[in-house]
Write a structure and sequence with these properties.
- With about 350 residues, this protein is mainly α.
- About 55% of the residues lie in helices and about 5% in strands.
- The protein contains 15 helices and five strands.
- The strands form two sheets. A three-stranded parallel beta sheet has the order 1-2-3. A two-stranded parallel ribbon has the order 4-5.
- Helix 12 crosses helix 14.
- The radius of gyration is 22 Å and the shape is globular.
- The two termini are about 45 Å apart.
C-alpha cells in the first residue's frame, strides 16, 4: 500500500510552473490590480547583490506596476535553523533600510514584521490541522533545510516551516508569490492548506485563494569564494558596502588561470559569474561584456566588474546612508506597516473563526 496521502497535491511540475508564470506576467501587465503579492526575507544580515538582482528589483517592478505588495520581515523564522536570534533588532532595521534604498515605497507596499501580527500567527493552529506529519516529513525543501540546519536537533518550528509560510501568505489572501524553483514545494503546501480549508469549512465558498507561483528568472550569482552568494557564508557583496570594500572583495574573488575571458557558466563558473555581474549592472549581454574584455585577463575583468557594481549601486548607497541617519523613520515605516498588516490579519482571523463556527 502506498503511504501517499490521497489528498496530497502532486509534486510541482517545473515546466508547467514556468509556462504558468509566463502567463501570469501577461495578466499582471493587463490588470495589476487583481493581484496581491506576499514576499519577504528573514532578518539575518544585510542584503547583497544576489538579493538585489534576484528579488529586490522584481518587488519594485511589481509595486511600480500597481500590484498590492506585502513585504514580510520574517523575524520569527530566524529561529527555524538557529538556536537564538542574535542582533535581531539591528538586522530588522538593516533589512528595512535595504528595502527602502532599493526602491520599495512604504506608501505603496506594506512592510511589516512577523512577530508583530498575533492574528497572523494564530492562523497556524487551524492550518496545522489540515496537513499530516507524513506530508511535512516528505517536503523536499524542509529536508534540505534540516540537513543544513545550525541547530543541534531539529525543532518543531523547522518541521512546521511550510505551514508558517502558508500563514504568512494566506493571512493577507495573497494570490501571487514570487519564488525560486526550490520554493515550489513550500508553495504547494500553502495551496493544499487553502484548498482543504475551503473544502472542509467553506461550504462551497472560497475563503482563501490558492496562490500561484511567479517564478524568478534571476540568474545564480556566485560569492567571492566560488560558491552560492550567501549572508551566512561571508562571501557576499552587500548593498551597503562602500566602493572601497567592494573593490577589495571583487579583487579577492575566485577566477581561473585562462587569460582569455569568456562567458561559459558550465566550464568557467567563477569567471562567468563575474562577467554576469558586470552585465547585470550595465543591463547588457554577458557575452558582449566578455568579448570586450577579451585577453585582458582576470585583473581587467575584476576592474570592469568593480566599476560596474559601484556605478550601479552609487545612488542606492547614497539613499541608504541618508535613511540610516534617521532610524526613527525606519521604525515609523514598520509601525505603519504593522498597523495596516495587523488590521488585515485580524479581519482574516475573524473570518476564519466565523467560517469554523468559533465566533462566540
Amino acid at each position: 500500500m502506498s503511504t501517499q496521502d490521497p489528498d496530497t497535491s502532486p509534486a510541482p511540475d517545473l515546466p508547467v510552473a514556468r509556462r504558468r508564470s509566463a502567463e501570469l506576467e501577461g495578466l499582471i501587465a493587463a490588470d495589476p490590480g487583481r493581484f496581491r503579492v506576499l514576499t519577504g526575507d528573514r532578518p539575518t544580515g544585510r542584503l547583497h547583490l544576489g538579493h538585489y538582482f534576484g528579488t529586490l528589483q522584481g518587488r519594485v517592478r511589481l509595486q511600480d506596476l500597481g500590484v498590492d505588495t506585502f513585504v514580510i520581515v520574517a523575524d520569527y523564522q530566524v529561529l527555524t535553523d538557529r538556536d537564538v536570534a542574535e542582533h535581531l533588532a539591528e538586522h530588522v532595521e538593516d533589512l528595512v533600510l535595504d528595502y527602502l534604498a532599493a526602491g520599495i515605497d512604504p506608501e505603496r507596499s506594506t512592510i511589516f514584521t512577523h512577530s508583530s501580527l498575533p492574528a497572523l500567527n494564530q492562523l497556524l493552529l487551524p492550518f496545522l490541522s489540515l496537513v499530516s506529519v507524513a506530508e511535512l516529513r516528505r517536503n523536499p525543501t524542509v529536508k534540505d533545510e534540516i540537513a543544513h540546519s545550525r541547530q543541534a536537533s531539529v525543532s518543531g518550528l523547522m518541521f512546521t516551516y511550510p505551514v508558517h509560510q502558508a500563514a504568512d501568505i494566506l493571512f493577507c489572501k495573497a494570490n501571487l508569490v514570487p519564488v525560486g524553483q526550490d520554493q515550489l514545494p513550500h508553495l504547494e503546501v500553502t495551496r493544499t492548506i487553502a484548498r482543504r480549508f475551503n473544502d472542509r469549512y467553506g461550504q462551497g465558498s472560497q475563503v482563501f485563494p490558492e496562490p500561484e507561483a511567479l517564478l524568478s528568472a534571476a540568474p545564480l550569482l556566485l560569492g567571492t569564494d566560488g560558491t552560492k552568494m550567501s549572508k551566512s557564508r561571508g562571501n557576499a557583496i552587500t548593498l551597503s558596502a562602500t566602493a572601497d570594500e567592494t573593490a577589495r572583495l571583487i579583487k579577492g574573488a575566485r577566477s581561473d588561470a585562462t587569460r582569455r575571458i569568456s562567458y561559459d557558466p558550465a566550464t568557467r563558473p567563477e569567471v562567468s559569474s563575474l562577467v554576469l555581474l558586470a552585465a547585470l549592472c550595465q543591463e547588457r549581454d554577458p557575452r558582449t561584456v566578455a568579448e570586450e574584455i577579451g585577453d585582458g585577463g582576470a585583473a581587467h575583468l575584476k576592474k570592469a566588474v568593480t566599476e560596474a557594481v559601484n556605478e550601479r549601486l552609487a545612488a542606492l548607497r547614497a539613499r541608504r546612508a541618508e535613511l540610516a541617519a534617521d532610524r526613527g523613520h525606519v521604525r515609523e515605516v514598520l509601525r505603519a506597516g504593522n498597523e495596516r498588516a495587523g488590521a488585515v490579519a485580524e479581519a482574516t482571523l475573524s473570518e476564519v473563526r466565523a467560517t469554523m463556527g468559533m465566533a462566540y
